[in-house]
Amino acid sequence: MSGRGRSRALSDSTFAAISRNLEEYPASGRIDFEMRRMTIRTISISLATEDVSRSVKFYVEELGFVCLLKLEEFARVRSGAADIMLVPPNAHREWQGQQFTGAIYLGVDNVDELWERLKDRARIVYPIATMDYGVREFGLLDDSGYQLSLAQPVAG
């Protein structure tokens, strides 16, 4: 595929990877490499919890986050690039408990150390393992039932 007409912001390897993806998944449609609708600078996750204080305690004491702001009905915790807002359930909807069905992946530098520290203290979803896709990870539930997967790329 020729590079003619594509954005100069894309490296050759990135363009090649996108092109391979389009060949493998043609239903995803044509990408206009010149059109940029938005640039995402950061992502913050907002998690509803029935007890903001309890959630702050979990993230700070168990996972080593720093509490940036704590109000009665709002808190913000951070660890590296992970920015999480903890809020009470939305007043506009009936609260039926945590309903998020995915997992929040947190890339860490010390997954084995975290596993040793948390394996007997946290609600483990799946034990530490080296995955076929080159990541060593384990999953746990936070105090509100959200699944967190702590993951580290495997060297080599």
Write structural notes for this entry:
It is a single chain. The protein has a domain of 109 residues: 2,3-Dihydroxybiphenyl 1,2-Dioxygenase, domain 1, CATH 3.10.180. It is of the alpha/beta class and 156 residues long. A hairpin with a 5-residue loop joins strand 7 and strand 8. A four-stranded mixed sheet has the order 1-4-3-2, with helices on one face. It has a four-stranded mixed sheet with strand order 5-8-7-6, covered by helices on one side. The two termini are 31 Å apart. The chain is globular, with a radius of gyration of 20 Å. The protein is built from three helices and eight strands; from the N terminus they run αβαββββαβββ.
Descriptive labels:
globular, 2,3-Dihydroxybiphenyl 1,2-Dioxygenase, domain 1, 156 residues, disordered N terminus, 4-stranded mixed β-sheet, 21% helix, single chain, alpha/beta
Major β-sheet strand ordering: 1-4-3-2
Q: How far apart lie the N and C ends?
A: 31 Å
Percent of residues in beta strands? 25-35%
CATH class of the domain at 45-153: Alpha Beta
Number of strands: 8
Nearest-integer average pLDDT: 82
- The gross shape turns out to be globular
Low-pLDDT windows of residues: 1-8
**Helix-strand topology string:** HEHEEEEHEEE
> In the CATH scheme, what's the topology name of the domain at 45-153?
2,3-Dihydroxybiphenyl 1,2-Dioxygenase, domain 1
Helical residue percent band: 10-25%
Assign the CATH superfamily of the domain at 45-153: 2,3-Dihydroxybiphenyl 1,2-Dioxygenase, domain 1
Proper CATH architecture of the domain at 45-153: Roll
Q: How large is the count of helical segments?
A: 3
Q: Rg to the nearest angstrom?
A: 20 Å
* Class inferred from helices and paired strands: alpha/beta
Question: How is the main sheet built?
Answer: 4 strands, mixed
